[in-house]
Amino acid sequence: MNPLLSEFDSFVRTRTPALLRSAYLLTGDQHLAEDLVQSALARTHRSWNRLHDSGNAEAYTRKTMYHLQVSWWRRRRVAESMPGDLPEPRGGDSTRDHAQQTTIRLTLRAALAKLSAKQRAVLVLRFFEDRTEVEAAEMLGVTAGTVKSQTSKALARLRRVAPELAELYVMEGTTR
Amino acid sequence: MNQDRLRLDLASLADEVAPVDLRDRALRTSRRLGIQRVVATSAAALVLLGAATGTALAIRPNGQGPAPSPATTSSGPPVEVTPTPTPSKSPSKGTTPSKGTTPSKGTTPSNTGRPSGKQTLVLGPDGLGALKLGMSKKEAAATGLISDFQRFDASVWPGCPNRAEMKGGGGAVWLSTRLGVASIEPRAEVRTAEGIRVGSPRADVLRAYPTWRPVDGNGTPGEDGRGLVPVPGNPDAKFRIVIQNGKVSSVGLQFAQQDCYE
């Protein structure tokens, strides 16, 4: 009975889980991820009249999310270092059992926290959302060249801050 | 680095997040954003008012005798204020302010505000051709420029229940209950009086409307996004200019205060 509202509702309900996953990788924190998605959805709602028949509401929401994250980060400039005792990664096993998987996750999370917001954003866009350089550039409002250079910087930094991770990746990559 | 491995690990990391329902929170934030927008606009108005008053006060002690008439630009002879703060006259010229104050705007070769015989219509300052901001539904329909208004669900923007397509090149016209025609956004070949049209590069936009900034993102003029700029000759309206990939992707004319979107 309220076609637009229910459209927005169903948009929110169907897309939030996926948005949260990206936001979690961008922020590294459940609450920050929720805040980010909530803000992006609110802005989507403000523009819903314009968006709903263009069919790319989700693109708008994602774009807003990435922009907000980069600008929030700039404003706050807090190093979201992951506190706590991260277990030492145990390399060498050829089977990635559950414990090892957990370790890798923690290490990756801590390593991501040491990247800039832009570097994180390009990694998430390129390797989590599987976007092309051009698509990622469009999303971030930068050139494809910037995406390319930020990506290689991000990967280099990952290798530097988490050599154990890099070793693991490389090792597995070569045995493949 | 093995990027497939990285893909898998990112996906596995993303699994950590707990799904939550954000609908209500998003709607609350949306409402708050709406309120902020109103507050910001009134604050801007206050600042303008303050600036105007300040200018008047600043000039006052100079002019010895009589009260300086604040409204007119060609003020009394003894005053030697060079920077005229009036925004409308502004640009280029470079020359020292001549006394004569001929009212000729001159300079801009582009137009005189009326469609110049060519195909391209001029958008602004108060409408597009016969179609004007503030028209009632009937008046707008009578122009023959738009198709019938369609009822548009008003749950998100209750004050703005109607929207029509433009004939010809397409585009949208929004009708607010309170304001009448609140926004005109043609898709057809039109340009603003300052020469901006779909396809104009960013540099042209910034030359014509130096205050253009994207409202989302970081608000720097080098970014893509949508920005609202004043319409020369119509203080009640704004141009809504969207830039994508460095070029204008849409130009609309709307009331500065409208209740149809954003």
Description:
The complex is a heterodimer of chains A (176) and B (262). With 176 residues, chain A is an all-alpha fold. Chain A has helices spanning 3-27, 30-46, 48-51, 57-76, 98-112, 117-128, 133-140, 144-161, 163-175. In chain A, helix 1 (3-27) crosses helix 4 (57-76), helix 1 crosses helix 6 and helix 6 (117-128) crosses helix 8 (144-161). Chain B has a domain at 121-255. In chain B, the strands form three sheets. A seven-stranded antiparallel β-sheet of chain B has the order 4-5-6-7-11-10-9, with no helix packed on it. Chain B has a two-stranded parallel ribbon with strand order 1-8. The chains are: A mainly alpha (176), B alpha+beta (262). The interface between A and B is large, with 60 and 50 residues.
Sum this structure up briefly.
The complex is a heterodimer of chains A (176) and B (262). Chain A has helices at 3-27, 30-46, 48-51, 57-76, 98-112, 117-128, 133-140, 144-161, 163-175. Chain A is mainly α and 176 residues long.
